[in-house]
Amino acid sequence: MSAAATVTRSRSRVASRRVLVVVDDACTAPEVCATVRTHADGRPIDALVLAPAHGTAATQWYVHEDAARADATHRLRTCLACLTHDGIRVTGDLGDPDPIQAIADALYTFPADEILLVTAPQRPSRWLRPNVIDRARQAFRRPITHVVMPAAPERRAS
């Protein structure tokens, strides 16, 4: 086998960087895509976007559970569209209302190299009060990055 063939074959075997993106907000900003790309270390990226349904005591009622799933589906679709548009290989899934359990479930089938937790800037994130970021850092032996979505520009009345 020639040296050129060996180099080509070894390049094709470069492992992709597996990134689990867990969204508490619809990630439509280009900055989120750029953040995902910076965690690739120059390698191809395989990303799994996980949108946990926001659970509350009220989700025991079907109407509230349906609304939580609809919100999670919206967050998932917008993030998938943003990352796909940026050329990132991505799949997605809805997750357990408990973000820690959702991450554990996802890692069972998608052994990520890193976890990105995306939260909202405009309203307090549902994850900051129950300390989800710190709990995730304690529970999972992977690098975890907290990404705060940039604030959307305010619209002025004409």
Keywords, please?
158 residues, Rossmann fold, five-stranded parallel sheet, globular, alpha/beta, 39% helix
Overall geometric form? globular
The sequence of SSEs as H and E is: HEHEHEHEHE
**Derived structural class:** alpha/beta
Radius of gyration: 18 Å
Mean pLDDT: 76
Query: What is the makeup of the main sheet?
Result: 5 strands, parallel
* Number of distinct beta strands: 5
CATH class: Alpha Beta
Task: Assign the CATH architecture.
Answer: 3-Layer(aba) Sandwich
The CATH homology group name? HUPs
State the strand order across the main sheet. 3-2-1-4-5
- How many separate domains make up the residues? 1
For the termini, the CA-CA separation is: 69 Å
User: Which blocks of ≥5 consecutive residues have pLDDT under 50?
Assistant: 2-12, 56-63
CATH topology-level name:
Rossmann fold
What helical percentage do the residues reach?
25-40%
Hey, roughly how much beta strand do the residues contain?
15-25%
Number of helical segments with 4 or more residues: 5
